[in-house]
Amino acid sequence: MMLAVGLTVKRGAFTLELNNTLPLQGITALFGRSGCGKTTMLRAIAGLDRHAGAEVQCGAIVWQQGSLFMPVHQRRIGMAFQESSLLPHLSVEQNLLYGFKRLAKQTDIQLKPEQIIQLLELAPLLQQAPEQLSGGQRQRVALGRALLSQPQLLLLDEPLASLDQQSRSEILPFLQRIASQTGIPMLLVSHQLDDVVKLADHLVLMHEGRVVSQGPLQQQLLQPELAAIGAMSLLHAKSHGSKQHLLKLSIGKQQLQLPAPLHAASVEQTAYRLRILARDVALSLKPLSESSVSNQLQVSISGFNSAPHPAETLVQLTLEGQPLQALLTKQSLERLGLQIGQPVYAQIKAVALD
């Protein structure tokens, strides 16, 4: 199923102009600098703002076209914003169930309260007031309320922006869990690339009111616009268990090992996303036997891109069919005589697990 959006919005010197189709599968991130039009696009999709001439179609259902405008409550969407907007005079349980009983009389219920309470680990919080909750807990309740609206699409507008680092780390696994266990597609607005790489499957890159590029996250991370933020790669790896606190992973036929997550549930995962900064990848012409870097993987050079600093180059690599980037000085590039198609070894110094 796809989401088609045609939209033109003019505000002073700024113009948002869209004619795009987005996938409704997994998590799609709308990414770009503040003011590029991400939230305006999301609010138009939700029906919170009505713009003349806009066209929005979700699968086979037209939400807006010409004189037709389907209101928010008919669009089968759930929404979560920077602020959780919980009703302060109601308990957590009452906030969760707000509107649910009325909805249950009109709609087939796919997600039940007990499922959502278990999914988001809300049972200990049910009798508390919103003011007693941490920022991360409030966002979990807001997500639960959105899910109990039985959405076909979940819209998340900077849901982590107002949280401190500890709360952000707390809420991220729940967003991953929602995506994997409910199958509900999500549109995530963010200007934090780290959050996007942890969560998204598909990236829509926006700049000054336009979609400049979109596609699977792995490939989109190669876009030169992202290099100035911090070039990085995403690798998919399979787990083969852990031993002596080291997690054993494979990428294709090659093996690597990393410190195992401290949480037992994370160790039991069978698949991992590895976030690797380009500056944490070094290259050599042959394996290094006298090195503290244990992960040395054979790769081939697929291209070269300019880097933000004039003394550096982004080297595009292929590792078992997956893209990997390394940030090298031009001096090192010339000293090693690196060329497209050449097999080399990547020493990966630091990896973040998701």
Notable characteristics:
OB fold (Dihydrolipoamide Acetyltransferase, E2P), Rossmann fold, globular, alpha+beta, 11 helices, 6-stranded mixed beta sheet, 354 residues, 5-stranded antiparallel beta sheet
Protein structure class: alpha+beta
- Main beta sheet strand tally, sense and closure: 6 strands, mixed
Q: Biggest sheet, strands in spatial order? A: 7-8-9-3-10-11
Average per-residue pLDDT, rounded, comes to 91
Low-confidence stretches: none
Summarize the structure.
With 354 residues, the protein is of the alpha+beta class. Helices cover 23% and strands 38% of the residues.
Detailed description of the structure:
With 354 residues, this protein is α+β, with helices and mostly antiparallel strands. It folds into 2 domains: 2-220, 3-Layer(aba) Sandwich (Rossmann fold); 232-353, OB fold (Dihydrolipoamide Acetyltransferase, E2P) (Beta Barrel). Helix content is 23%, strand content 38%. The protein is built from 11 helices and 21 strands. The strands form 4 sheets. The chain has a 6-stranded mixed β-sheet with strand order 7-8-9-3-10-11, with helices on both faces. A hairpin with a 2-residue loop joins strand 10 and strand 11. The radius of gyration is 23 Å and the shape is globular. The mean pLDDT is 91.
